Amino acid sequence: MFNKKIKKIKKGNGVLKMGAVFAISVQSGQEIYSKELLKKRLAQTNINIVKGVFASETYTDFINEDNNCVDTSDSIKEEDITSYMKTQRLRTAINNRRLQLEVLSRYNGVQYEEYKTEAKKEINQLEKEVREIKRSSKSLKSVIRGYILIELTMDSIYLPDYLWSFIKDLKMGIPSKYSIPEYELEQFFNTLSDYLESEVVMSFEKEKTYEEVEAEQKELLTQLNNKEIDEEEKLEVENKLDELHVSIVDKINEFLANKSVNNFYKKVNAFIKRGKKLVSLPSSLYSNLYNENEKLQISKFLQERDFLKRFEKYTYQNKANIGLR
Q: What is the mean pLDDT of residues 149-176?
């Protein structure tokens, strides 16, 4: 993986010698697919001057009530790439079936209705397979949008014509004819490592409407005014009332807007998507907020107030080191 190469590129006060590196312009969003295609095609030839092909991948792990444990080892395994490629093939098949269904929708008749029904069944089955893969694998992406890189075994200013033609004929992208200058590579390595850290997206409860909050608050206040309620039950109801008025999205965004934060905290993001309250954060921050035992059963800790307490405590303890004022 390219991130491992970046970590190893410096040794002592010097820089390990690399072969020439060339950029290949590819379709945005197709970086990993293009990398794997090129690697596969090269393996079928006698071209032996390519040392490596890189898409600079990172990944996102999603935590919700269905996903009780995530891998924060910051490594991408071969099975992750395999799952990604299978998902891409399935999505292509889904798009093809939808196009077929769109054409069939213009026609009527028993035979066409049977075709439509079969196409819909196939789409549902393929979408189910995608969901199953996503539940058990990492969500990969390239941090260099629209490009992949190849490294040669030798130093060269120009990409050999036969290799340039080979890549061009694959119709996956357009290779540059000139290598990336060494000083640009060093600058690139120094900045890229910050972007390669994986992230974790935590999914909290669904955002309530004003009417839902009002109705729940009314019910809780009724319970609180019950004279038969004991102290333990009273405390539980009071906590639920407090939770109603805690918005993790608002609190995190307020923190990010009002504090002077360094680049590490700028990677934290809180937003609402499809009614769910989501917080994305670097995997290293996630590992600092939860210990190993908690991470093994993390779905039990998906409460907004609990997360905010941990986040605020960590921020306070480390404010001298993270640039907060």
A: 94
- The percentage of residues in the chain with a pLDDT greater than 70, rounded to a whole number, is 83
The DSSP element (H or E) to which 150 belongs, if any, is strand 147-152
* In contact, 173 and 167? CB cutoff 8 Å: yes
Give, as one character, the DSSP assignment of residue 67. B
Does pTM surpass 0.85?
Answer: no
Shared domain for 171 and 55, answered yes or no, is yes
The answer to whether residues 268 and 226 belong to one domain is: yes
pLDDT, tens only, 105-144 = 888 888 888 888 999 999 999 999 998 887 777 788 888 8
Using an 8 Å Cβ cutoff, are 83 and 76 in contact? no
Q: How many helices (H) and strands (E) does the chain have?
A: 14, 11
Is residue 196 left, alpha or beta, with left meaning phi > 0 and alpha meaning psi from -120 to 50? alpha
Residue 173 lies in a domain: yes
CA gap 275, 62 in Å, rounded: 16
By DSSP bridging, strand 139-142 and strand 276-282 are unpaired
Please provide the DSSP assignment of 239-282 as one string: HHHHHHT--HHHHHHHHHHHS---HHHHT-EEEEETTEEEEEEE
Alpha-carbon gap, residue 92 to 97, rounded angstroms: 9
Whole-number Cα distances in Å, 131 to 26, 134, 202: 27, 5, 18
Please tell me the total number of residues recorded for the chain in this structure.
325
CB 187 within 8 A of CB 208: no
At residue 36, what is the residue type? E
DSSP 144: S
Q: Domain check: are 206 and 289 in the same one?
A: yes
Domain that holds residue 108: 77-137
